[in-house]
Design goal:
single chain; 368 residues; alpha+beta; Aminopeptidase; five-stranded mixed sheet; three-stranded antiparallel sheet; globular
């Protein structure tokens, strides 16, 4: 098989043909929908649901929490307990890998990453009994944890708990994020039970299975990138009942149950404006999504990702917006290659859809 067939499969598997009216039934919630920037999750759902509006953030069927890689994700409320179990590190190597950019600080803390994670989780659980701003939680928790798990912040002129430790620990402390609230506010998860510290390999494997369903066919290294662990540990989480696929000479895996869709996916004849951190853009094999390295740098920035224009099975460009109060939303769409007129009209219709769900009455589209 080739990459075009893989992309057609992912477009279908992730619901981008927009045939579902109920957001809770979208397959992308099997992993969660990242919400790193204002309205990104809402726009991701607008690309997939026939009917969605801004009330999504207040829907009790969904909950926002720091989960995969410490990033904020919306999950189905009923799935959150399983997600929490999946986030318990399998061993110390796993715990340290999940610390990502703050591994060196955790290594210097004088305790294991596992102990540091759950020490912070217990402190967060004790502190957050009602909604509190992130800053207030950080201040209170920092006083309760070993000094090695905190750092001096020059900007604030204060000592804070390590950011990644706080993000990874919060869910284990039974704490979520308040959706649609600024500044970031933490609150206790309704009905939170006792804190679990024992690894749950089956729950971890379920996350990898979901990754393969939505972003496959793939290798352990790509699943590891999404989870935030090592390739060897992703292999330990590797599910059974997989089909081996050859894609452009690479041996990849896909759940056997999804093989029929890969073999005969619907035509990827859709045009969508995907927000930054959209599930489709979360595949760790970026060269499959965007083969050209220069274009990859346009889609995935170090700071300030744009949205991506999906047209007829390919990432065809990027887009950004600028709001004029709450009246008009201005779009600038930059295409990589000439775009046919029907695709341009479809993109402009998608811009109107995005503006509507974000609460803007008017829209203006500029092409570059």
């Amino acid at each position: 098989m080739d990459r075009e067939q893989v992309l057609a499969y992912r477009i279908a598997a992730q619901g981008l043909h927009r045939t579902e009216s109920d957001a809770a039934k979208l397959a992308v919630f099997d992993l969660g929908v990242q919400s790193t920037q204002r309205d990104t999750a809402l726009v991701a759902l607008a690309a997939r649901c026939t009917d969605i509006d801004e009330s999504f953030v207040d829907d009790p069927r969904f909950v926002l929490a720091w989960t995969h890689r410490g990033a904020p994700h919306f999950h189905r409320t009923g799935d959150l307990a399983a997600v929490t179990r999946a986030l318990i590190p399998l061993d110390e190597t796993d715990a340290m890998a999940r610390m990502q950019w703050q591994r060196k600080q955790v290594e210097a803390a004088g305790m294991s990453a596992t102990d540091g994670l759950f020490t912070a989780a217990r402190a967060i659980r004790d502190v957050v009994g009602e909604p509190m701003t992130k800053g207030a939680v950080s201040t209170a928790v920092t006083k309760m944890i070993p000094a090695g798990l905190s750092y001096w912040c020059r900007g604030c002129h204060a000592t804070h708990i390590l950011e990644q430790v706080m993000r990874l620990a919060a869910i284990h402390g039974g704490v979520r994020l308040e959706a649609g609230v600024n500044p970031a506010t933490l609150a206790p998860i309704e009905g939170r039970g006792r804190m679990r510290t024992k690894p749950d390999p089956a729950a971890a494997t379920a996350v990898v299975s979901a990754y393969l369903r939505l972003h496959g066919p793939a290798r352990p290294a790509e699943a590891a990138g999404f989870v935030g662990t090592t390739t060897n540990l992703a292999k330990a989480m590797w599910p059974d009942e997989l089909a081996e696929i050859s894609v452009d000479g690479r041996k990849l895996s896909l759940p056997s149950a999804d093989l029929a869709l890969l073999e005969n996916p619907p035509e990827p004849d859709v045009v969508r404006l995907l927000p930054p951190w959209d599930p489709f853009l979360q595949s760790r094999d970026r060269a499959v999504l965007v083969p050209d390295k220069a274009r990859q740098k346009e889609v995935w920035k170090i700071i300030g990702n744009p949205g991506a224009l999906l047209a007829d099975g390919e990432i065809a460009g990027v887009w950004r917006t600028k709001g004029s109060g709450r009246k008009r939303l201005d779009f600038t769409i930059t295409v990589f290659d000439a775009l046919p007129a029907p695709a341009r009209r479809a993109a402009e219709a998608e811009a109107e859809r995005v503006a509507k769900v974000r609460g803007f009455a008017d829209v203006r589209v500029s092409w570059a």
